[in-house]
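= Paired protein data =
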Amino acid sequence: MADAPFLQAQNIYKVFIARGGQARLALRNVDLTVRRGEFLCLIGPSGCGKSTVLNMFAGLVAPSDGVIRHDGRMIVDVNTQVGYVTQDDNLLPWRTVLANVELALECKGVAPDERRSRAVDYLTRVGLRGYEGLYPHELSGGMRKRVSIVRTLVDDSVDVILMDEPFGPLDAQTRLILQDELLRLWQGTGRTIVFVTHDLVEAIALSDRIAIFTSVPGAIKDVREVNLPRPRDVFHIHETPGFSEIYDRIWNDLREEILKTRADNAA
């Protein structure tokens, strides 16, 4: 894995203007680099700007100051070279499972036979072969999330996948299953994933490195390596030698920021 920055947030500040014209500093002096092909998790207190950084990598939000780069290119508009998976599945209710997965390929002019073949291949990998003709309202929450993920991954023209708490709304068992499926889909592809979560165990199970944010206004407090071997067993990750030490170090970093956030909210 190359150490050169593939995604980069350099000296980022973000100010949001609330109703009545009041300014709120959301991010301050954020410096973050993402290596090509790595799985990086962003973790921190609620409201610390993790999703805002993700939106900047996607070109959906502009920094008030500082620079966002993707593969050396400055991002000043919507970044069409990334895929984005949000908490909501955002499936089109009038399109079938197959048609939803084919959507990006259809928009890019991929031939019908090829896009169908690629869509069916990905649906098969996540256990949804045979569900191609169903509509989103006929699926469980976990099934809809699977469709949302493979709809993003099927487009191999994107080299970065941004994921904003994609498993947050799901039950614990479904989350574990989808974490395992995501790792199997990602490993060996060379794609870069930036993944926002509030779940420290999830972050350790999935990532190569974890960036820890401070309380608001958000900054990068530390970036920790997750030196656990791959492939990983997410169902028994807590039994992996070295897990407890990594967990304790990151939790110590995180706990202080969570307590600051609680104190600020109570003031």
